[in-house]
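Homework help board

Subject: predicted structure for assignment chain

Our instructor gave us this sequence and asked us to write out the predicted structure in token form, then describe one feature. I got the tokens but I'm not sure how to describe them. Can anyone check?
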Amino acid sequence: MFNTKEKYPFWVTGIEDIEKILACVKKGEVKELCTSAGGRSVKYVTYGKKENYNRRANYSSACGAHDLSCYADKKGKRHTLMLIGATHGQETEGVAGIANLISLIETGRDLRGIAVPSVTESLKTSDCRLVIVPIYNIDGRARCAPDSMIGEPMESLRHYGQGNWRDGTLCGWPGCKKVHPIKESAGFLGAYFNDSGVNLMHDNFFAPMARETVALMKLCDQEAPSCVIGLHGGGNTTNELLQPDYVPAYINRELLALAEEIAEKQTALGLKSRVRPLPTGECVTPPSFNLTSAIHHVCGAVSCTYESNEGLAENNAFTPEEILLHHYCLFSGMFSHDWNNITENFY
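My token output:
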């Protein structure tokens, strides 16, 4: 098992390490989101003053009124942006990115000791409120021994991520979703799941099974963020933003614009980039309504999944430095994007 942190000290993804980073936060405010199914404390940190958006209705009702200002009147006010790390506990790339982002905000330098003005200046200029959940599925992260999947074979990713059935065979993807909650059917419970065996990406969002889901939905509703990005790992994919299903077309148009801005930053650094085009012509809506879609319908955000390369021992493996730089492009693009377009394009 390759210990990424030994060779790359900036790769900080362990629960105790993140706790130490949060304990040193001075410019922001650290709060508890909830206690996980396994009894662990899920924390989040905020930077920037919280705005009063003069709420008169929930998001669904405001949509019905054709007036989003009834839910959150953001005109002339700072926007709130949110990052969520480790919804799946073995997907640690976003956790490493968040750890370095917090260091940049707090000290002006990342965990390599390097200043990254493209991130810090874009955050300062945006004057946004930033909400960060470093490790959302803390139970799954506790269950995953490696600090990354860098250099690991795909079988290792499947074992630590989706787990094993009682007969010892790999659950695999997407087969691990055939039983949910999966706890009683698993021999080894993978890091996809909290200690109750719930995959937080596929909870029952109209009657949530997991207390983590209830807490996150409440936080999104209270904060009314303009953008929420869930930081995931997607094998050895070339990093990309995935468009959610079951959201209005203008949301994914806005997401496409953000993706193009991020890709420009990646290309300028000599990094690989990929932008998923909007569907054209007649398309069939897939059946899955997951966490990303649910977040939009709670708070109206441009909600998306960021699939990061995981550096597996396969083709198209990114180095730890490349993975970190990709996240910096994501963060700076998110901060510098003009989020006023969302309400302007509504209806």
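Reply (TA_rk): Your tokens look well-formed. For the description, you could write something like this. Residues 88 and 192 are 4 Å apart (CA to CA). That's the kind of observation they're looking for.
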